[in-house]
Amino acid sequence: MTADAPAPVRDPAWSLSRSAIGLWVTEGVIGALFWVVVVTAVFVFVPDGGLPSPLRWALVAFAVLEAAVTIGIRPWIRYRVHRWEVTGEAVYTLTGWLTRTWTLVPISRIQTVDVTRGVLQQLFGLATVAVLTASSQGTVRVLHLEADVAQRVADDLARRAELVRDEAT
Asked: 57, 80, 82, 125: most buried, per Cβ within 10 A?
C-alpha cells in the first residue's frame, strides 16, 4: 500500500445528536452519585482502624477523578468520535472513544430494524436504531439520534431491505 492510496475505510458522514452530550453527562452524574454513596458508606460504616487513612483518601480521589472524566471529558470525546451514515448500499457506524469500532452493514444483510428509546433517551428526545443482520456480529446500533430522525432512518432502512429481498426472489 502506498502513501497516496486512499484509506480502505472512511469515516461515516454524520455525528450523533448534540443532545447525546447531555445524556452522557447525565449518565456520568448518576455514576458519580453512585461513587459518592460508596465513599460515604466507607467513611460512615468502616471504622477508622478498619481501612488505612491513605486508602480512604485514595478512594475519594478515585471518585473525584472518575466523576471528572465521566462528566467533563468522556461525553465530549464520545460526541466527536461516534459517527454514522446510511448510503444506498450500507449502514456505516464508527463507535468507541478508547477502542474504535468501524462497522459496515450491507442493506442486503438487514433482517430487522428497530427503534428503541430508553428512559433517559426519552428525556433528551433521543432514540437508538438497532439493525439486526444475518451475520455473526448480530445487531448494529446507531445510538442517540433525534427521535424523528431515528424513525425516518428505520423506516427507510426497512423499506430498502424489503426491496432488496424482493429483487433477490
From this structure: 82
pLDDT digits (tens, 9 = 90+) for 136-159: 677 899 999 999 999 999 999 999
CA distances from 40 to 30, 45, 62, 132 (A): 15, 8, 13, 43
3-class secondary structure, 90: strand
How far is residue 78's CA from residue 92's CA, in Å, rounded to a whole number? Answer: 17
Grid coordinates standing for 96? 468507541
User: Which residues have CB under 8 Å from 28's CB, separation 6+?
Assistant: 67, 70, 71, 74, 75
- What are 60-79's pLDDT values in tens digits? 999 999 999 999 999 999 99
CB 123 within 8 A of CB 116: no
Q: Which of 68, 65, 59, 62 is nearest to 29 (CA)?
A: 68
